[in-house]
Amino acid sequence: MKIFISADIEGITGVTSWSETEYGGEGYEAACRLMTAETAAACKAAADMGCDVVVKDAHGSGLNINIEGLPVGTRLIRGWRCSPEAMMGGLDSSFDGVVYIGYHAPSGSDGSPLAHTVDRSIAAIKVNGKLASEFTLNCMYADSIGVPSLLISGDEYTCLAAADEYSGIETVSTKSCVGNSTYNRHPEEVKEEIYRKVQEAVKNIEDKSIDISNEINEEINLEISYRECSKAREASWYPGAILKSPNTVEYKAENINDFMTAKKFLLEV
Predict the structure, then answer these.
(1) Which of 33, 75, 84, 135 has a CA between 20 and 30 Å from the CA of residue 259?
(2) Quick one: pLDDT at residue 77?
(3) d(CA 18, CA 138)
(4) pTM of the model as a whole
(5) Strand ranges (DSSP E) for the chain?
(6) What is the distance between the alpha carbons of residues 76 and 68, in angstroms, rounded to a whole number?
């Protein structure tokens, strides 16, 4: 079996401020070590179950994870493919499941001091009328190519939302958040739970008890609200996009491929 791991940093235990997520910022190197450790726990769990493992470093520059901290045999994708798959770049239908490490609450929520979706210039993203997180967008793509989402780790808000959104997914809450504060679990506890639950999720694949959860509609309605009016106006020039309000653009995608392409360009204005 093959497992794909998409790893972010804002949902890693201990990570609380934007400086910890940015190269050269105070606490960034420590956050990278914690990100590497949580990702390594997922890799080891899958590898110990006999799986091939590919990791996408899916935060910022894509150059955060220390490959020396991952188990031997793990393949790490660094940098960006400059393609619509974004945080899922490298995933294809040959994989048996996806694991999401270090994910976080979306823009438009109060689930984390680091809440955002793709870019901090985005106020909120809705898909078919519902607030969407990066997990929402990424698991839609995974489902569209027939690969189930197995586990997500991250802040409490993210885990609760993912469990409600995606039936049967395993969750590992790394911290709870109130205002600009975070209540963090010890890294060793988080790693142990990630290891155990990844193994449970892989076993469920073997037992054929994992199914695709999302229903991918033929037409997908994408609504993006920007913090700056100028970005919405610029985005409205994308073919088919409509300026719904001074800050919001709406786009009706005909299928998942159309959706993925539109999302890429509308979020990069």
Answers:
(1) 75
(2) 98
(3) 22
(4) 0.96
(5) 2-7, 52-57, 75-77, 97-103, 122-127, 130-131, 149-155, 170-178, 181-184, 220-226, 242-245, 248-253
(6) 10
